[in-house]
Amino acid sequence: MIRPMPGSTASPRNDTRSRLEVRISAEDKNLIEQATRAGRETITGFVMRAALNAAEEVMRRERITVVPPDFFEAIIDSLDAPPQRNEALTRAAKESREIPKRK
Fold first, then answer.
1. Where is this region: Disordered (predicted)?
2. pLDDT of 29 over the 90 cut
3. Among 26, 7, 28, 9, CA closest to 17
4. What pLDDT digit, counting tens, does each position of 38-86 carry?
5. CA 69, CA 22: separation in Å to the nearest integer?
6. Where does residue 33 fall: left (phi above 0), alpha (psi -120 to 50 degrees), or beta otherwise?
7. Which one, of 16, 96, 2, 17, lies nearest residue 49 by Cα?
8. Which pTM does this prediction carry?
9. Radius of gyration from C-alpha coordinates of the chain
């Protein structure tokens, strides 16, 4: 799914003012042309669909953090556990409420 840039009023699929050019080998171009003919699709449509699918997959991976199951369970357990008092932190908080300024 394509999303418009913040502040943009144009629909991204209908905004044809932007261009993206790439240089590819003749062999790669031939393969893309064969695929577009086989899929009865334009080269632009084919390349746009492939590039956008790849971009969305990259962004999806960027938003997800994968951790081992035991690590995930430890995080959940620590969030579910009642808070534990930290005496050193409590003392430090009572000692000074001022934030030291750098000189």
1. 1-22
2. yes
3. 9
4. 999 999 999 999 999 999 999 999 998 889 999 999 999 999 999 888 9
5. 42
6. alpha
7. 2
8. 0.51
9. 27
